[in-house]
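Z., the sequence and structure:
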Amino acid sequence: MRNTINLLMALMLGVCALSAAAAEVKVHKGIEFAKPDNFPLTLDIYVPQTGKKSYPVLVIYHGGGWLVNNNSIMNDLSNKIARDGEFVVANMNYRLLVDQGNTVKMNQIIEDVFGGLLWVKDHIAEYGGDPSRIAVTGDSAGGHLTTMILTRGRQLESDGYAGDSLGFKPSYLPAGKTAEQVAKEDGLKVQAAIVSYGAFDLYKAAQGGFESPSNMFWKFGNAEARGLFGNEINVKDHADYYKAVSPIYFVPNASEYKLPPQFVHVGSLDKTTPPESAQHYVDLLKAGKQPVEYKVYPNKNHAYLDNGCNWANSCFDKDAAWPVDDMINFLNKTLKN
């Protein structure tokens, strides 16, 4: 009888503990931050419920080859980092190439990403986030978008990609400010970044068949393969268009511009964004004397930060624990000191 009572009490305590854990994070869903060409862009904000007046912030950009997924693929990661690390997490959406009748261009995706970060800086204090302590992260395509913030976040122009200089006009701008004013103020500057099995060179990717039906992500997105900038622009005749959205060509020397500390990681078995690609990016950072930490996780494939299990045979519960612990430790070092 006593053993039965003890077992029931243990079960009740376990249920209470699970309920408390579930209540540790409050999620604000579907907040609209911009509406470019009448297309609503939203984010979800995860707020720890541990009673602090302010928390450091992590902004997440999901992967999916710029063709599939939305921010819900990062729900498990967002919740875990908010809960276990005590960070306010902004889990972002952006337009995909297949949106708006398969007409979105790569520069517009980047403009959505830039605009989302500017919105977070303007509004995250309303959710308990500290706008002076912001890190950005993304996996795969989101890793590319993260490094675009770091390397191209000062190439802001009111005419966007229309001029010869191929700048970006963020989809959201702070009230009363132009793109040029935001650039002059270094308005997209962040305090840290995590690049998870990222892509860095769209010029090379386009030469390698990204814009052709052989790229399986077009099929995943139920769309006809086409150029990243429409069928009128091709990589052979317009290399500058592709290089302008490829962060690998814009890694600065620290003497010119100091990038924030970065943590770059990838799985040893990844063939989609292989370790060699990440290593090349890290080598450029080190050559420029930029602060970076790098880790290759043994026996891990692509997309190990996605919810559940996926096409790469990666499962969040099995494969993400070690990387997420390292991510939280890195964020603690860079944002909480």
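The longest helix spans residues 2-22. DSSP finds twelve helices and eight strands in the chain.

Let me know what you think.
H.
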